[in-house]
């Protein structure tokens, strides 16, 4: 008499018992050490520094709220309670959905690390976001405001030369903060009689080539010659004595430069990513097509369709 079917039934029962033991061993209430392990797994799965920064901030906000009441179980009901809590997270739908995406990813990694049961993780991942009503425009600069922005710094001082070149690159080339901080002399090359930023590695590892207008290249030359730098990173710190120092600028410095200069021309709450919006708006106003602007900024087509529709509604082609 053959015993193979008995062995199969036995192996199936063993697998079932093992899965039941694994589900029983998984936790429902995660403590701070468990959350830190899951958080590290989430951040290690991301390659983009911008995504890591956003997810880290979102997870830290959730962990602070979650640990304020330690008896809460990490479940779908708790995540819904967090979504609907006043001020946690902030009330804008886009921000709420971004925070929920990080919490869903946290639950997935916690389940993958055997810290959370698969059923609870699946329930958390089914939590729906908040509906977006209308379009959030953000901060946009007109052509006159953009021109006044990069001309506001004092061109007679070394810091002013750097800030003028920095703002011009943000406005005309649509770079992100970390892309501008990592910009080197090797990136700026002349191709077929035109200047361009070549082989720039941006968000999610996307590599693109960005055209540089002649007036922007002139401002870059003015800054680098005055600072006496010929290799390495393009932008450096400037001391109070008017001397360039360090190997590169930081993303925080780029933020402060934009905020400081914007206050001089009367524009409040302006951030570097607002200059990317303004870049797409100005390109669209000049008659640029969607594919050209997408190639320039290296962003998704859905975001650009939204941005260009708003831009073309407020601008007319020359």
In words, what does this structure look like?
The protein is mainly alpha-helical and 318 residues long. It has two domains: 22-125, DNA polymerase, domain 1 (Orthogonal Bundle); 143-314, Intergrase catalytic core (hpI Integrase, Chain A, Orthogonal Bundle). Helix content is 58%, strand content 7%. It is built from 14 helices and five strands. A hairpin with a 5-residue loop joins β2 (194-201) and β3. The chain is elongated.
Could you give a short description of this structure?
With 318 residues, this protein is mainly α. The protein has 14 helices and five strands.
| Coarse shape | elongated
Bin the strand percentage.
Answer: 5-15%
Total number of helical segments? 14
- Termini, distance in Å? 90 Å
Q: Secondary-structure element order, as H and E?
A: HHHHHHHHHEEEHEEHHHH
Count of separate structural domains: 2
Indicate the CATH architecture of the largest domain: Orthogonal Bundle
Largest sheet: 3 strands, antiparallel
Query: What is the strand arrangement across the widest sheet?
Result: 1-2-3
Radius of gyration: 25 Å
Counting copies of identical and different chains, the oligomeric state is single chain
Helix residue percentage: 55-70%
Task: Quote the CATH topology of the largest domain.
Answer: hpI Integrase, Chain A
CATH superfamily of the largest domain: Intergrase catalytic core
> Ranges with pLDDT <50 over ≥5 residues?
284-296, 298-318
- Arithmetic mean of pLDDT: 79
Structural class label: mainly alpha
- Strand tally: 5
Q: Which CATH class of the largest domain applies here?
A: Mainly Alpha
């Amino acid at each position: 008499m053959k015993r193979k079917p008995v062995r199969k039934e036995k192996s199936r029962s063993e697998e079932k018992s093992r899965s039941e033991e694994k589900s029983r061993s998984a936790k429902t209430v995660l403590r701070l050490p468990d959350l830190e392990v899951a958080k590290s797994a989430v951040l290690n799965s991301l390659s983009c520094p911008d995504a890591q920064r956003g997810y880290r901030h979102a997870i830290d906000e959730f962990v602070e709220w979650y640990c304020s009441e330690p008896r809460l179980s990490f479940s779908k009901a708790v995540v819904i309670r967090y979504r609907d809590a006043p001020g946690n997270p902030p009330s804008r739908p886009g921000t709420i959905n971004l925070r929920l995406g990080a919490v869903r990813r946290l639950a997935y990694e916690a389940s993958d690390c055997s810290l959370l049961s698969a059923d609870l993780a699946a329930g958390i991942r089914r939590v729906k976001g908040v509906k977006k009503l209308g379009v959030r425009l953000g901060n946009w600069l007109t052509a006159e405001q953009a021109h006044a922005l990069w001309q506001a710094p004092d061109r007679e001082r070394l810091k002013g030369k750097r800030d003028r070149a920095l703002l011009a690159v943000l406005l005309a080339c649509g770079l992100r903060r970390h892309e501008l901080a990592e910009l080197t002399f090797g990136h700026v090359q002349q191709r077929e009689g035109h200047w361009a930023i070549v082989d720039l590695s941006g968000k999610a590892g996307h590599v693109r080539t960005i055209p540089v207008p002649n007036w922007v290249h002139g401002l870059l030359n003015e800054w680098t010659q005055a600072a006496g730098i010929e290799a390495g990173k393009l932008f450096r710190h400037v001391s109070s004595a008017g001397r360039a120092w360090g190997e590169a600028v930081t993303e925080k410095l780029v933020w402060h430069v934009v905020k400081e200069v914007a206050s001089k021309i009367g524009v409040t709450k302006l951030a570097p990513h607002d200059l990317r919006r303004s870049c797409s708006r100005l390109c669209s106003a000049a008659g640029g097509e969607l594919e050209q602007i997408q190639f320039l900024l290296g962003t998704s087509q859905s975001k650009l369709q939204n941005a260009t529709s708003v831009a073309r509604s407020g601008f007319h082609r020359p």
